Known about the structure:
The protein is built from 2 helices and no strands. By secondary structure, it is mostly helical.
Amino acid sequence: MLYYALVFFVIALIAAVLGFGGIAIAAAGIAKILFFIFLVLFIISLIAHVGRRV
């Protein structure tokens, strides 16, 4: 999932450089959403792992 966030971020950067504002904004928004989903799942995974240890 983090891979997809990075891919959409790169697409957003390329689109912004080429002047496609709408595409850049959409790709950046998707990248941001995927990053936060990854972050939440990572934190849940850490908490579950620590909970199983104890």
